[in-house]
Amino acid sequence: IHFYKRMYALRTKKEAAHSDGIWCVDWVKVAQEHDTKVETSEDATGDAQDILVTGGIDDAVRIWNYKEGEMSLKHQLTDHSLGVISVALSPDGTRLASSSLDSVIIVWDTETGKRLATMETGPVDAWTVIFTSDGQFVVSGSHTGTVTLYSSQTGKVEHTLDSKSKFTLSLAASRDGKYLATGAIDGIIVVFDLNTKKLVHTLEGHAMPIRSLAFSPDNTKLITGSDDGHIKMYDIAHATLLATMSGHISWVLSVSFSPDNEHFVSSSCDGSVKVWEVATKQCVHTFKEHSDQVWGVKFNKVGDRVVSVSDDKTMIVYTIPI
Predict the structure, then answer these.
(1) Cα torsion at 176, 229, 11, 175 (round to 10°)?
(2) Which whole number is the average pLDDT over 222-239?
(3) CA distances from 156 to 148, 160, 197 (A)
(4) Which of 27, 34, 35, 297 pairs with 251 at a CA distance of 20 to 30 A?
């Protein structure tokens, strides 16, 4: 019997994953439709395929297959005419949304790489994009603070929400479909009830731009990362601040919750990726593998891997002990 404890480690490093800095990343496990047998384990071959998606300054969106530490390019999507700010995979991994400085949001089929829908948003009016948890809507913020919900099938505008704040930099949707959170350039966080489309909380914890926010998988907590270098954790039901966590020495650019609800990961302009423990509010590990600011970080579905992307053009996957 092997009593082998997994350690924090660099698993895979993909250099020159783009020809310029990489701004965004997402990671989802795609169930294979033609597979009818019951999944026996997470790693059963053929049951599910891990796909990663990246976007960068080079105007390109790239879809990658990830298997046992190997990354292979599946599609390069070059329809954007300017840098790609945000990419998001639908919960089932079959679709991908990308937004760019060219003010266009595109929805793609991840299997074929074909365009499914295009949303023209007007000047500078597409920043972060996400899917709602049911995959029904693609959500985008704007420089006026308006949040738009588009049909992910047709690309048509279905709802608009007013965050009553400034430029919406970041978005997150809770897994249960109830909440949508927005982070603004002035540090204001707004939480909407997606069922009623009403604004339910305004959280004024940061004084500087909110680059990223993430709900815990159990829908009880929200973490926020800001240019003030801090990460804050809120109790969603009561809109109370649970903790302020410091450790990064520059802007916090991205945050992502682990599927276990017990950990989250953050990345920063300081070039580091940090793993945090929810219970103790402490950083339990710091990776310093990038040579430039780290724009995006994401856990995989199982929670035993984390991916990060950086201005150094590199995509790195780390092993996380669970």
Answers:
(1) 0
(2) 96
(3) 10, 11, 17
(4) 27
- Residue 218 contacts residue 261 (beta carbons within 8 Å): yes
How far apart are the C-alpha atoms of 52 and 309, rounded to whole Å?
11
Q: 60 CB contacts (<8 Å, ≥6 apart)?
A: 18, 19, 76, 77, 78, 80, 84
Residue (of 114, 79, 113) closest to 99 by Cα position: 79
Q: 127: closest CA among 156, 96, 98, 150?
A: 98
With a CB cutoff of 8 Å and minimum separation 6, the contacts of 166 are: 143, 145, 184, 185, 186, 188
- Residue 1 clears pLDDT 80, i.e. is over it: no
Candidates 158, 122, 129, 161; CA nearest to 145 is: 161
Give which of 55, 65, 63, 53 is closest to 27, Cα–Cα.
53
* Global model pTM greater than 0.85: yes
The whole-number pLDDT of residue 35 equals 43
With a cut of 80, say whether residue 192 has pLDDT above it: yes
| Model confidence at 235: pLDDT above 80 | yes
